[in-house]
Amino acid sequence: MKIAIVSKADAAGGGASRVAEELGRHLRSADVEAVHFAAWGSRFDADLRPIYGCLAARKATLLAHKTSRKIGFGESVPFELPAALLALRGFDLVHFHDTSSTFSPVTLLAASRMMPLVWTFHDCSPFTGGCIYPQMAGCERYKTGCGKCPMTGEWPLDGKLDFTALSLSLRRRLHRRPNVHSVVPSAWMRDVAWASGSLVREPTIISNMVDSQALRPVEDRAGLRRRLGIEEDRLVLIASSGNVDDPRKGIRDSLSAASGLSHANPLVILLGAPDRRVHEQSRGVEFLSTGYVSDRRELCEWLTAADAFLFTSKADNQPLSILESFACGTPVYGWPTGGASEMVEDGVDGRLVAGRDPAALAAVISEDWRTGRMAAMRAAARQTAVSKFGSASFVADHLALYQKALGDRLEHETYQ
Q1: Which residues contact 113 (CB under 8 A, 6 or more apart)?
Q2: Helix-helix angle 320-327:296-305, to 10 degrees
Q3: What is the rounded distance in angstroms from the CA atom of residue 88 to the CA atom of residue 6?
Q4: Contacts 24+ apart (CB under 8 A), 291-297
Q5: Measured distance CA(12)–CA(148) in Å, rounded
Q6: 2.30.30.90, 1.10.3980.10, 3.40.50.2000, 3.90.550.10: which CATH number matches 221-388?
């Protein structure tokens, strides 16, 4: 079995691309021939290959997609089609991950005529007109055909013209192909995708994984805090976002909750690209901005040093940030958004507050900090990462799906 894994980028490109890279690595560890293809990456080698072709072709294709989005076509035009089909020749199955801004559904449709195609839904774009999370606009137009999109002008729908109806029709055509199989990391995403009306087969749920060997608590936590200049008995909260001003990630809610804990003199660690506008609204809360952290060891240190991870996202699927926090023994506090409620067991490895009220979240954090309940959750958080989100089941579930997809294709061809 020879598997092609395709994503927007390598692990540096965000959570979905990181999942794709981890899947390829663990499949190869299980003696499966798997190659990861990316539109762009920090480096390319035998295991990570450019799907757009040579450097000049990559630059031209990325520019073409950017220009197309600025007009409003989104990913409707398959600039990458010839290079992608050439790269995928000789594989038994192709598995796509994040495609926004880099791959047209026309390319996926063409690939599905060559071999079975698996598509993991890391956000809602596979069954919308291209928007990532329509929940942010309270929009359900994707159920009826899109058009008049309230999210036009926001990435990846950067243009002023609205071609979302065309984009959705292309995706729906793709999902009707018998060779196409969809994967979702959470039951929440399964339900939203199925309710969209775009799919003809219910998606398979395969949870994301976290490498609990690469991400694990620093043993000498007290020494770690001293080295980082953090008082041993101080309440330390941590939050993360690619950009801390991303409205979807809700970092302002995290800071608002922290402002209600002035009696505990909290320190908030912000992981992600800093933004002065957010910092100016921190309401007197002391914070430490780390910038974007790509090094796994450094990430372990910040997460281990924190007493709780704040998850106040307004729309999300199955956040890797929660899995990474669990792996480092850090309980999660925040909102039951998307698939988060399937990940956090209330009172065991974290607390999720209904109603999304920062004051209520602050009260829960204060009580659990005062009683020592928060510290007691650390071991359970680590156990959740190891037992529920490990690599073994992640790889086994994917292999089972691949075998089914290949078997279905053989059966389909036999009876044609």
Answers
A1: 177, 179
A2: 70
A3: 10
A4: 292/242, 294/11, 294/12, 296/214, 296/215
A5: 33
A6: 3.40.50.2000
User: Which tokens belong to 327?
Assistant: 């792996």
Q: How many CA atoms lie within 13 A of 85 on its CB side?
A: 14
What pLDDT, in 10s, does the model give residues 382-393? Answer: 999 999 999 999
- What local confidence, expressed as pLDDT, does residue 77 receive? 92
Contact 328, 320 (CB under 8 A): no
Answer for the pair 71, 108: CB distance below 8 angstroms, yes or no: no
Fold assignment, 2-209+391-414: Rossmann fold (3.40.50)
Cα gap 270→237, rounded to integer Å: 9
CA gap 392, 349 in Å, rounded: 22
Give the distance between the most distant pair of CA atoms in the chain.
72
Amino acid, res. 169: S
Report residue 192: phi and psi, to 5°.
Answer: -65, -45
CA–CA dist 54, 47 (Å, integer) = 16
pLDDT in tens, 126-141: 999 999 999 999 999 9
- Segment (H or E) for 94: strand 93-96
Cβ atoms within 10 A of the Cβ of 302, count? 22
